[in-house]
Design a protein that fits this description.
single chain, mainly alpha, two-stranded antiparallel sheet, about 50% helix
Length: about 220
Amino acid sequence: MKYFESTIKNEIAIRDTEHITRPDMIQLMLDNRGKEGQIQLDVDDIVAQAYAFYFAGSETSSSVISYIAYQIVANPSIQVKLRQEIDELLNELNGNVTYEVINKLKYLDAVIKEALRLFSPSVMERICEKAYKLPPALPGEKSFTINKGMIIWVPLYAIHHDEKYYDNAEEFRPERFLNNNLDNNYRSSFYFPFGLGSRMCIDRRFGLLMIKVIPFHLLVSTM
């Protein structure tokens, strides 16, 4: 904690002293200082936000990567398909690996999506901003109104493992994500490992890239 705190505070001091601007989260918080109508963050607040941003992204991504590693070892056929896809693409591009190349690996993308479906958080928490009346869950029951300010738990894990939305929901089957237009097992309304809407995980794109790059290099190094 002391190391992280001193590092962030030193970075802020350097930027303020030398008038350095960088396109990152710390800069967004620094630029917000002194603006009317905006939440004002002092140095300790910025350190706390940066700490949470860094470790929340690292811990979650590393956990998913570990789960993917387990699944491709437990399912040799999936590992073979991944290796074939990576090998074919590298041969086409003479081994030149870029951000665009990583994103062309459709089967790797499907493996990651399936891992995120099976290995998702238990719940997603939200605060109701406007009263909303839910219809009765079953015939003969009363409706329920979610009032403004109420905390809502959306059961991500239960939805992602529900047989109503995913055939053989407990099975690790990346193929269900290969053809999203034709495969009824995939519906965006029932798949949200990073949340939905304006409160979706801010670290989503970076997290996905990290989750793709590490398995990619692991499989390349074992070929």
